[in-house]
Amino acid sequence: MTHQPNKQFNTYKDGLDLEFLREYCMEHGERRTFLRGETLEEAGEPAQWVAFVERGCFKYMVHNNEEGKEYCTGFAFEGEFVADFPYCLDGDVSEVSIMADMPCEVRIISGRELQALFDSDPKMMLHNVRILKNLFKMVYGRDLDHYRYTARSRYRRLIDRCPQVVQMLSLKDIASFLNITPSYLSTLRKEMTYETRAEGKRACTMPRKKE
User: Fold this and answer.
1) DSSP for 23-82?
2) Biggest distance spanned by C-alpha atoms of the chain
3) Of residues 1 and 12, which shows the higher confidence score?
4) How far is CA 104 from the centre of its chain?
């Protein structure tokens, strides 16, 4: 059974009503299953798809040629949409590889089909503009977080906002998303666990006020 984060990991949905898109995917989309490690999109190839995730989790990966390493830049969870947006709308070259992090079930449509839906009505076109705006705000905010917060603070903010994310994702992928090493993330986890236990002990030993 897949666990959903307590709060939204992807904030692009804030203030948006995307029920129209979910309904369209459920009605017109093809149901498809992805095994762990299978890709929805490949970096360097034309982006093609938009999918509503019914079960599972996808991760967005980018390759660093100089280091010869893959970095995880984001995730799409159950109840969310997964796509290399907006590149999928016109079949532009995908900037990332999108990979199933576990067995996934989706309802999938083509990006060109979604573009035709946006073009069909001025209100639909406005949805496109709002989605793009919110995506920019989310990605820009995450970029700024790497400068205004330490790695420790970024991890703390992540588990405070989405505590179940640590149960869903591997240590390696969380570390990659935070742009730190798995060994450093393991150290942070141990330190925070120790601090939490110490705080709990102090709370238990504090004298109670007399009534």
Assistant:
1) HHHHHHSEEEEE-TT-EEE-TTSB--EEEEEEESEEEEEEEETTTTEEEEEEEEETTSEE
2) 71
3) 12
4) 15
Distances (CA, A) of 100 to 49, 52, 53, 89: 14, 13, 11, 21
Task: At 86, list the tokens.
Answer: 């907006």
pTM for the model: 0.86
Residue count (the chain): 211
pLDDT tens for 192-203 read 887 766 566 565
Neighbouring CB atoms inside 10 A of 4's CB total 16
In the block, residue with structure tokens 């709308």: 89
> Helix or strand or coil: residue 140?
helix
* Measured CA distances, 23 to 28, 52, 73, 86 (Å): 8, 9, 27, 20
Strand 57-64 relative to strand 69-77, pairing: antiparallel
Report yes or no: 41 and 49 within 8 Å, Cβ to Cβ: yes
Radius of gyration, alpha carbons of the chain: 20
pLDDT in tens, 89-130: 999 999 999 999 999 999 999 999 999 999 999 999 999 999
